[in-house]
# Entry
Amino acid sequence: MLDVREIDVRYGPIHAVRGVSLRVGAGEIVTIIGANGAGKSTILKAVVGLLRPSSGEVRLEGESLAALRPANIVRRGIAMVPEGRRVFPRLSVLDNLRLGGYGRPKIEVGQTLDRVFTLFPRLRERRRQLAGTLSGGEQQMLAIGRGLMSQPRLLLLDEPSMGLAPLLVQQIFETILAINERGTTILLVEQNAHMALAVADRGYVMENGRIVLTGEAETLATNPQIRAAYLGE
# Structure
């Protein structure tokens, strides 16, 4: 489904991503793990067109995304839930969600709202509440719900567990599995390697802008190097 081929991404003189290749098959959950600053989020931004690779290519179902603006990439079926949630704090929960469905037919927006509220009943209860008054966990639910409003075939999640209490982390990862079971392919960036590898089919390990290890999630979870570096063992 998604094919990232030998991309290099720079922030001015900083070479953030170096020759990275990865693939995500339809129906999979694929995770990218690594320390803060390894380049994980940069890859997601390159996929959705927020950053342009200086070399290499990103393809969705065989089509290059190089010439497409971010809005057109969303229309092709990719949505990103950014690190830090980034909800619109002075808008209601309902308006935040409607913005996620901007440009889609009204009937589709209504149907997708119902699906999001089924997935996150708390958002239905708080649909008139200002997003900035929600708890951190509720804001993360809202950010994911907003991403789902565009009806993506591929959902990119950037550090969805960041700053959440352990119980909420468990709930968020259960939701990620539920979204995938309903047919959405997921590319997940996470520092919580234990949880990420528990839900993923396959994983990539990044260090200093490069992929240094890849494999089935179960295999990575038992790798001594991974256990020592990322699982605290």
Q: What stands out?
A: The domain at 1-77+196-233 is CATH 3.40.50.300 (Rossmann fold). The chain has a mean pLDDT of 90. The chain is about 40% helix and 25% strand.
